[in-house]
């Protein structure tokens, strides 16, 4: 059911007459509230609530057993997410970017099927250690937050291919990155880095390292070794 740019300020009553819905698109409206009745849409696979004015989402959102494909909550006015969201253990894509989140709930670590997590442009200062349980995660996009460290548990993200840490507050490359055997792209642009650790050469799959807009000094041997094996290094 498609209500994209429909000029809505509330979810249409007609939605609740179709409990067998698989796709519900409510993006680019003026919604401020998502009713708890959303839990009745037990066949829903994709829910798009991006580009609205939501200030919160109900805990019942985490009780949708068939939500497997996409959950878009980006570009709203969310300041927190319910712990119950972690109940979406079949969901593969979650976008909570462009909100006002100061943290991510620990419950997200239970989303065992998650492949891509986008939390760009929030106010996040630290990540929960439970995110290390997302063993199938391939992309973690955290640009434009207030992070200065990563939990050590992220070294368990053995499937991670892309880690975007651009525009945060890192003064050193996080040690958790050291244990990521499949990492291909590491974006550290516009942080507060002053050095690069020699262990970056031990990342066997690294194809692109972006260090621009930092004050990195030295580390020429490390960067040369990366370039010699075909890794693109930007600084």
Describe the protein.
- The chain has a ten-stranded parallel beta sheet with strand order 1-2-3-4-5-6-7-8-9-10, covered by helices on one side.
- It has a domain at 125-235: Ribonuclease Inhibitor (Leucine-rich repeat, LRR (right-handed beta-alpha superhelix)).
- The protein is elongated.
- With 235 residues, the chain is mostly beta strands.
- The chain is 4% helix and 13% strand.
- The protein has one helix spanning 220-228, and strands at 23-25, 46-48, 70-72, 93-95, 116-118, 139-141, 162-164, 185-187, 208-210, 232-234.
Keywords:
single chain, mainly beta, Leucine-rich repeat, LRR (right-handed beta-alpha superhelix), Leu-rich_rpt, repeat, Leu-rich_rpt_typical-subtyp
- Overall structural class, as computed from helix and strand content, comes to mainly beta
Radius of gyration: 19 Å
Order of helices and strands: EEEEEEEEEHE
Number of helical segments with 4 or more residues? 1
Task: List the SSEs and their pairings.
Blueprint: E1 23-25, E2 46-48, E3 70-72, E4 93-95, E5 116-118, E6 139-141, E7 162-164, E8 185-187, E9 208-210, H1 220-228, E10 232-234
Parallel strand pairs: 1-2, 2-3, 3-4, 4-5, 5-6, 6-7, 7-8, 8-9, 9-10
Protein name: Leucine-rich repeat domain-containing protein
Pfam family, one: LRR_8
Keywords: Leucine-rich repeat, Repeat
């Amino acid at each position: 059911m498609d209500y994209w740019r429909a000029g809505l300020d509330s979810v249409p009553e007609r939605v609740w007459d179709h409990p067998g819905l698989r796709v519900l698109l409510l993006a680019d409206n003026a919604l401020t509230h998502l009713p708890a009745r959303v839990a009745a849409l037990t066949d829903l696979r994709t829910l798009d609530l991006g580009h609205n004015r939501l200030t919160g989402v109900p805990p019942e959102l985490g009780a949708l057993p068939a939500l497997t494909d996409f959950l878009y909550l980006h570009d709203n006015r969310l300041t927190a997410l319910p712990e119950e969201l972690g109940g979406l253990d079949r969901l593969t894509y979650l976008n909570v970017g462009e909100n006002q989140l100061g943290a991510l709930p620990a419950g997200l670590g239970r989303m065992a099927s998650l492949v891509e997590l986008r939390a760009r442009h929030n106010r996040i200062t630290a990540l929960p250690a439970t995110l290390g349980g997302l063993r199938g995660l391939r992309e973690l996009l955290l640009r434009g937050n207030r992070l200065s460290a990563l939990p050590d548990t992220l070294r368990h993200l053995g499937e991670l291919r892309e880690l975007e840490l651009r525009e945060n507050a890192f003064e050193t490359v996080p040690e958790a990155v050291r244990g990521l055997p499949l990492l291909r792209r590491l974006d550290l642009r516009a942080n507060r880095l002053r050095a690069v650790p020699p262990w970056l050469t031990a990342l066997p799959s690294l194809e692109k390292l972006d260090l621009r807009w930092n004050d990195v000094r030295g580390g020429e041997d490390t960067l040369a070794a990366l370039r010699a094996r075909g890794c693109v290094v930007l600084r």
